[in-house]
Design a protein that fits this description.
Elements lengths: L1 H17 L1 H6 L3 H103 L3 H23 L3 H16 L6 H15 L6 H14 L13 H10 L6 H12 L15 H24 L2 H18 L4 H14 L11 H30 L1
Length: 377
């Protein structure tokens, strides 16, 4: 093969000598082929780069579309799951609330059970005490009840009759119990009885009834009115006068028959009409009713002011008669009456009986404890 190549090179040189232009152009063809190769290679690399970028973009776009679809699907899934989650949260809150309520109910039931147990224990102890209760214990319990009732009656009724009777019953009950330790209790009861007996009892019921009667008697009183001239008296005087009486004497006689002189301590009020007369009577009755209400409430100032105002009304608007003067005097006496009841304190008898019961119960418990401790020894 080398031999064949050598003869082939000679014609080329010959051609080059003949034509110099051809010799200059032939060595330039070799670098042109290398540059074209690089250009083709660059274009191929660029093409591959563009294809790679396109493929990468297409893959990225496909991946982005897939992720977008996944995000959309996840958002739809989350949107569909969120109501379920909220419902589960609400159900869990309801369950927690129900559990707390159940715990509270359990606590309440436990406290109720404890209270019932304490009541059962107390009832058992009470039954044991009742089994060992003697007649004197029953009598002392009755005396305590009566002493407490007397104290309540004194505060509510504001009267000494009922509390005094109750304390006398307490003293009679204590007298039936023949025990030496009752001397102090009976002394306290006797002191309270003496205090009640020394109280000046006010007859409020009598005063109330009397005021009611005075209010009813107001309807019978007569108000002030104009006195009618005594025509009949003047006529009789004219008939009885002698004929020889002068004209001046006759005029003076007639004029003196028309004039009457009366003495009044209070100023003269104007003559009342029929409607005003009824109003005056109603006002006077209301003053007496106000005095009755103040009597029940033991309001001394209001009671006195109401009666004094009623007495003033009576003198101003009603005629001075025997009945009116009697009502006014009675109103003055009632106004001077003290209606505030001074009540003593009768708590010492109740406290003495209660202390005696406590001492007896303590002795009973000590005896039971000693009886229970002896078998254990």
């Amino acid at each position: 093969m080398t031999e064949k190549t050598k003869p082939e090179a000679k014609p080329k040189t010959a051609k080059v000598e003949k034509n110099k232009v051809v010799k200059k152009e032939k060595p330039k063809t070799k670098p042109k082929s290398g540059v074209g190769f690089f250009k083709v290679l660059g274009r191929l690399v660029f093409l591959l780069f563009v294809v790679g970028i396109s493929v990468a973009g297409w893959i990225f776009w496909q991946d982005w579309q897939q992720k977008t679809q996944n995000i959309t699907a996840n958002s739809l899934t989350i949107g569909s799951i969120s109501p379920v989650v909220m419902a589960n949260q609400q159900q869990s809150q309801i369950s927690v609330k129900q559990s707390l309520e159940q715990q509270q109910n359990i606590f309440n039931l436990e406290s109720q059970i404890q209270n019932l147990q304490l009541r059962i224990n107390a009832q058992g102890a009470r039954l044991v005490e009742l089994g060992s209760t003697t007649r004197s214990d029953w009598l002392l319990a009755e005396a305590e009840y009566l002493a407490r009732l007397a104290k309540q009656r004194l505060q509510t009724e504001r009267n000494t009759k009922s509390p005094l009777a109750l304390l006398e019953s307490v003293d009679a009950i204590l007298q039936q119990i023949d025990e030496p330790n009752l001397i102090e209790v009976r002394g306290a009861v006797a002191a309270d009885i003496t205090a009640l007996r020394l109280v000046n009892d006010i007859d409020k019921q009598g005063v109330y009834v009397e005021l009611n009667a005075l209010a009813a008697s107001i309807k019978k009183l007569r108000v002030m009115e104009v006195d009618k001239p005594l025509e009949l008296a003047t006529e009789t005087k004219q008939q009885n006068t002698p004929q020889d009486v002068g004209v001046l004497d006759k005029f003076l006689a007639d004029f003196s028959g028309l004039i009457r002189v009366r003495q009044r301590q209070s100023p003269i009020e104007p003559i009342l009409e029929r409607a005003e007369e009824q109003t005056v009577r109603q006002n006077l009755q209301m003053m007496l009713e106000q005095a009755q209400l103040a009597l029940l409430r033991e309001e001394q100032v209001i009671y006195q002011q109401s009666l004094l105002k009623a007495q003033e009304y009576l003198q101003r608007f009603f005629k001075v008669t025997a009945s009116a003067e009697g009502i006014g005097q009675r109103l003055q006496r009632l106004a001077d009456t003290n209606i505030v009841q001074q009540l003593p304190s009768i708590h010492s008898s109740l406290e003495a009986v209660q202390n005696l019961l406590v001492v007896r119960q303590q002795r009973l418990l000590d005896s039971k404890r000693s009886e229970q401790a002896e078998p254990q020894r």
